[in-house]
Amino acid sequence: MTWFTIGIFEPLFNGLLYIQKLLPGHDLGLAIILLTLLIKAILYLPSLSSIRASRQLQVLQPRLKEIQTLYKGDKEKLAQAQMALYKESKVNPLASCLPLLIQIPFFIGLYQVFISGLKIDAHTSVLLPATLKHVYPFLRTYYQSTPINTMFLGFINLSTSHGIANIVLAVLAGGSQFWQTKMLAAPSEPKIKEARDESMTSAMNKQMTYILPLFTAYLAYKFPAGLALYWTTQSVLTVAQQYIFLKRHPLKPAVVQVSNDQPQH
Length: 265
What we know:
By secondary structure, the chain is mainly alpha-helical. The chain has one domain (3-187, 199-248). It is 67% helix and 2% strand. The radius of gyration is 23 Å and the shape is elongated.
């Protein structure tokens, strides 16, 4: 077995099965929500670092605009000035992407759980032997004879895709992802006549605000509904975390305003 199977897939698979076993009614959807809470707790500190880095980039937007105006037409000096500003302010412009990168193995692992892990007999709903080999010994006896309940709230089948449930969850997943990204977008500022070209980071952030939610919604529709439920729950939890942080660290109006004294050419 590969390191991914041992280190990511099997812990997620068995964690989900264990939580479902403990829940009254053995609701798979509630088990996914609780597993997402656990994953979110594990990733709490990296997520907090990402939110803090995004807030710092918001604060630096006026100075970045001024640098763009000052070094318009000189890409080399512009890049040097931006890097100097990041170093001076102790800001890593890529830090805000870290939690997303960390989440990718979890997302792939859960995808494997729903595609490969939850393979059940069509007649008995018991896990197939090929799947049982990935179940830890202390759970294997129970799941050798106990049917898997793939329903959420009694009417949403989380093992299927392309259904009505997927459409609803896709909208929720995309919407919550948009909300999450929009909260940390740089505030709108007055246009500077001389600074028509935006920095690569700013342009990327604007694209991510719209492209990432659409991509998330597409995946939520195409993949099993259980994965869409995980992504929606994860995004809602991140929105809550961001809201608490931003409430405690509001941007001062004076910080986000661009100075009227722009360099003259």
